[in-house]
Design brief:
It is a single chain. By secondary structure, this protein is of the alpha+beta class. Helix content is 45%, strand content 17%. It has two domains: 121 residues, 2-Layer Sandwich (TATA-Binding Protein), CATH 3.30.310; 94 residues, DnaJ domain (Helix Hairpins), CATH 1.10.287.110. It is built from six helices and seven strands. The strands form two sheets. It has a five-stranded antiparallel sheet, with helices on both faces. A two-stranded parallel sheet has the order 4-7. The N and C termini lie far apart (46 Å). 33% of the residues are buried.
Length: 258
Amino acid sequence: MHHLLIPAIELAVGGVAWAWSRNKNRKPQAPVEWTGRRTIDLPLHMVRRTVAKYMSDGDCVAVESDDLSDVYKRGDTSVRRVPWERNLRWGEVPVIIANGFGNDAGKTFFYFKVWALPTVTFSPAGEQFFLRQAQAEFDAIVSLLEALAQRERAGRPSGNGRRPNHRWYPGDDEAASPREAPADGSLDADLALLDLKRGATFEQVTKAYRVACHKYHPDRLAGQNVEPHLVELAVQRFKEVTAAYQRLRERMAQHQQS
């Protein structure tokens, strides 16, 4: 199935995205781009709707859509090079984002590709920044979809209403009042979600994120007949630590460029 599905989706998104990213007045250059693929255990319409909302919430503007793909543009088109005169947020880099979708044996094949506009030049460090942030965005979308898939699988009543006998239970090792990140997503709050403090290195942040993923990932509850509200607790905390990690990763990447 994949040997037919992937080329079809790539052709669909590639043709449309090229029309939006080309610039006839500039000499062609090697494209700066990143691609990700994943099969999600959700219906296609649910995956596509969830990804579309993520894009809309992330200041993306839809430019084209067909049966297989949705294409968006995002960023500040006045940006001509990365790094720029000031530190850039990932969302300010001018890009085209193409999302492709296909049915894969009852599941959904999700294809994600990000192109930098050809009007932007990148230093080696700037290109690495682009590739890291593109992958981080894909990982965040996949985490959101996988959490949704887990909720769909676990959204059935447990039957007797009693707590199953698990080795681990969402919230068992949390304090009575769990930490909550402030709405402004401050540095200290993001570090606290990963049990870190100021001065933590990128390696420490990455290690703490892996520990948190192992601790809170909803897949740990698969097949354990856990009540839906407890799955929701694990999903929410997983989303919080993932968002905190993405913000910390972006801050540290910007600091390295400065």
